[in-house]
Amino acid sequence: QVQLVESGGGLVQAGGSLRLSCAASTRTFTTYAMGWFRQAPGKEREFVAGISQSAGIMNYADSVKGRFTISRDGATNTYLQMNSLKPDDTAVYYCAASRNLGPPVAEYNYDYWGQGTQVTVSS
After folding, report:
1. Is the dihedral of CA 49, 23, 6, 2 positive or negative?
2. Are 70 and 50 a contacting pair, CB within 8 Å?
3. 99: Cα within 13 Å, side-chain hemisphere
4. If DSSP codes are grouped into helix, strand and coil, which group holds residue 34?
5. 46-103 pLDDT, tens per residue?
6. How many CA atoms lie within 13 A of 39 on its CB side?
7. What b/e sequence results for 17-34 when a residue is b if at least 16 CB atoms lie within 10 Å of its CB, and e otherwise?
């Protein structure tokens, strides 16, 4: 069982930046691809960004390309640097871990999920 804890959410003005963190409770962190998803009110949860086990492959949703950057460290942490934030980025952001070679995009390929952290971007 892997527990994921997100942090770093908050309220920011449009054009601002936030950095989300996700801490994983596992000794086998490098065996998991990691992803960030988000869910806005009244909408389906959607893929935002993913990073492979080796951190050699990253992929992004078209809506965040060029603005968001996913990374992971050698310990158990995954990050999402979010720049040039827009009101449409307002959502609860979730960290997820996948045993699949990746990073996968589809939710069903992820095995563990965090509780989420709220990001609100004001106009």
Report:
1. positive
2. yes
3. 6
4. strand
5. 999 999 999 999 999 999 999 999 999 988 999 999 999 999 999 999 999 999 988 9
6. 12
7. ebebbbbbeeeebeebbb
